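Human: Here is a favour to ask of a fellow structure person. Comparing notes only helps if you start from a blank page. Give me a protein, with the fold worked out from its sequence. Please set it down just below, with no commentary around it:

Assistant:
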Amino acid sequence: MFLALHRLMKAAVLGLMLAACWWLWTKREAARPLVDYYQVWEAAGYREPEPLPRLKGTVTRAVSDTSLYLRDDRGRVWAVGLTGFFGVDPATRDPRLRRLAAESRTNLNALAGQPVELAFTQTNANRTALGYLYVGTNQFGLAEEFVLAGRWRAAPEGLRPLPLTEQVRLRAAERAARSNQRGLWAPDPSESSP
């Protein structure tokens, strides 16, 4: 009798352990932001990056899906490349991706005349710059919206100058775009068979 109870108890404990492991496995996405934050923190050398210098101005027009012209407060026009992201390859022949790039350029053109801030990583004497664009009072930048819509892919190396919380949010936005198959990750309708 005692041996049967002992075996039954071992089976119950093992069953509870398996149920707990299964529950943890199904809740693994809840821990993803913590994993992202650790990976970003590790890549940044266990320190918060220094704040980037900012330039205030207004968007005049978009040149491509990741570059635009910006007029600063002094009236000078800057050619700005939005860094840290990959848009659609301009040489692509895929009509779906070309349409996505055109839509992204249209969305950037919709910002014309709006006050923006450019947190720049590089500027040159000929008024060209690379950086991250913040529209109005949006503290997480334009990039989060574009990445979440699947218009841009985040480049982890290019995001390192950003604050850690912003990097984590951009990783989460890209993961959401991938899982929901938006934009660049949308299935190609020509590949589906009837």
